[in-house]
Write a structure and sequence with these properties.
It is built from 15 helices and 20 strands. The protein is α/β, with parallel strands linked by helices.
Length: 577
């Protein structure tokens, strides 16, 4: 009986219906005939020339309320000298919302693709306007993060009245309109909740029914844009891991995640041979984990005429990482000693006095959590999969630790953040060089003091640096008044970090660096959307108001440009050619 029931569920789950016209059939063209980006000798090639880039994230781009807003945003990004936009190509719901964009309904054991004007036609416009502006897109197909704490903890709190009118997602434990946060577009856990009896996050990778359903969705999306030169790459998932806000099963390992990438990556490549397939992983490494795709010795090949031969770095090892940290800290100490001798006193770091003797990190045989496989991710093993075209990694220090052997006591906390980011970038470049593929920093960001009240970590739904007093309004001004000013970097510190990381990425030969995330103003609100009404003091807005700004999950650059992020990206884009 149970076996029959499972087969019945699988058959129902695999029934994918279209709410309007069906997706266009995939088209096949030669990459080199239509300007598609390819990979050759460890670098991107576009129109026959090496291609490197500075980009930005705008996960919310297809959910803007008007085509004019989408077009204006893309052209403004292009005008800043930014060549690539990374955005979500998924938007899963479990009931059809009152308003706003949605791409896929997952309900009652079936999935339904929305090809209507509030569905994939919005993504059509993103691709169309990007092509017209000469901007390339990295399109992510799902997300590791989709917390619904009230539902996942089995306590259902109904949403009604004004909140229901504004399409607040049931179970999020906040009053933000749907699609405000990057983790409120559905994703892996939307499939797990619908099709997994165990409710374990890792069943997304392990359950054959769920994998088949997800492949159906990828087919619909990927085939739709297989012939568009605006697509730089397909990203299988944003930040895939064994666990999310929902726990993983005990059987999920790095091999689980790698095997899923190999399976789904090959599927996407078969549907669309024109575009590169990437992982979207955070970049976590595990030198000691068993490999499904072990590295072979790099072949000695000659570079193409007019191009430099790719440098192949040393393999990643724990010993190598610790030795690099030791050398870096020794260099830092020598600089500080010279400063001490010049002043004729002890060693002073940013106004604080410290001892001159420091611990040797090589005495610690362990490495940090970004390098021990605890996330279930082995990025180098994933990168060596034949269908994966380039390495993905992210740098978000407010939510992740990247240190190899603890913080350097010679540096302040902020300077440690910068140095750990630089080291992380260099490690990823080294890993990619071993495989002979480019690496892309697909998201980097720091939370500032101005953004602290909006900051919602990806595995939660609540901003931790707001106080518990109910806000007088849901406006930016109302939230900012409740900020904990002690948290976050200053604008100057953020610009300093971004400059250091972009310079490090350019020097290490990283193929692209994508800031998280873009901010834009002058957007249209429809009375129930995620567009942030900065100029509204009452919490209500008229229809067709154009005073709104793009959503903010704590990383948005200032729409006015006052924080210096846009100018930093523009100024340093020249480092990438």
């Amino acid at each position: 009986m149970r076996f029959a029931a499972l087969w019945s569920l699988a058959a129902a789950a695999l029934a994918v219906r279209a709410s309007s016209s069906s997706s266009p059939a995939p088209t096949k063209t030669k990459r080199w005939d239509s300007g598609f980006v390819t990979v050759e000798d460890g670098q991107f090639i576009r129109n026959g020339e090496p291609f490197r880039f500075v980009g930005t994230n705008a996960y919310w781009l297809p959910s803007l309320n008007t085509d004019a807003d989408i077009n204006k945003t893309i052209h403004n990004i292009s005008a800043a000298g930014i060549k690539v936009i990374r955005t979500w190509a998924f938007n899963d719901v479990d009931e059809i919302p009152v308003n706003g964009t949605w791409f896929q309904l997952i309900q009652n054991g079936t999935t339904t693709i929305n090809n209507g004007s509030n569905g994939l036609q919005k993504l059509d416009k993103v691709v169309q306007f990007a092509e017209e502006a000469g901007v390339l897109l990295i399109l992510s197909l799902t997300n590791n993060w989709n917390p619904l704490p009230l539902l996942d903890n089995t306590t259902v709190v109904p949403v009604d009245g004004a909140l229901a009118r504004r399409d607040v997602t049931l179970g999020t434990n906040n009053s933000l309109p749907r699609n405000t946060l990057s983790n409120d577009f559905g994703g892996m856990d939307a499939y797990v909740r619908a099709f997994s009896a165990s409710r374990e996050h890792s069943t997304f990778y392990q359950n054959e029914t769920i994998v088949s359903i997800f492949k159906n969705y990828t087919t619909a999306i990927v085939s739709r844009y297989a012939d568009s030169p605006a697509v730089l790459a397909w990203e299988l998932a944003n930040d895939p891991r064994c666990n999310s806000s929902i726990a993983a099963s005990a059987t999920c390992t790095t091999n689980t995640i790698t095997a899923w990438h190999a399976d789904v990556g090959a599927h996407v490549a078969s549907v669309d041979p024109n575009h590169i397939v990437s992982s979207g992983a955070h970049g976590f490494q595990c030198m000691d984990c068993p490999k499904l795709f072990p590295l072979a010795p790099a072949p000695s090949t000659s570079a193409a005429p007019g191009r430099r031969k790719r440098a192949v770095g040393k393999p990643l090892t724990k010993e190598g990482l610790l030795a690099a940290v030791t050398a870096r800290r020794k260099k830092t100490r020598e600089v500080r000693k010279r400063e001490m001798l010049t002043r004729g006193d002890g060693l002073r770091i940013r106004g604080r006095w410290i001892a001159t003797r420091q611990a040797d990190p090589s005495s610690n045989s362990g490495v940090g959590s970004a390098f021990d496989g605890s996330s279930g991710v082995d990025s180098q093993d994933i990168l060596n999969i034949p269908s994966i075209g380039f390495g993905s990694f992210q740098l978000l220090p407010d939510q992740n630790s990247y240190d190899v052997a603890g913080a350097d006591p010679s540096l302040s906390g902020f300077n440690n953040t910068i140095e750990e980011g630089v080291q992380w970038i260099q490690v990823q470049a080294q890993s990619a060089a071993q495989v002979g593929k480019p690496a892309v920093l697909t998201a980097f960001g720091l939370v500032t003091q101005d953004n602290a009240p909006f900051f919602v970590p990806f595995n939660t739904t609540i901003a931790p640096f707001n106080n518990t007093t109910p806000p007088s309004s849901n406006t930016s001004a109302g939230l900012r008044a409740r900020a904990d000013a002690s948290y976050g970097a200053s604008d100057a510190q953020q610009d300093s970090a971004y400059t250091a990381w972009l310079q490090a990425a350019a020097a290490a030969g990283v193929g692209g660096a994508v800031q998280y995330q873009w901010g834009t103003g002058g957007l249209t609100d429809n009375g129930g959307s995620s567009v942030d009404q900065d100029n509204d003091a009452s919490g209500t807005t008229p229809n067709a108001d154009t005073s709104g700004s793009s959503p903010n999950d704590g990383y948005r650059s200032a729409p006015t440009g006052d924080d210096g992020v846009a100018s930093t990206l523009t100024d340093l884009s020249s480092l990438f050619g």
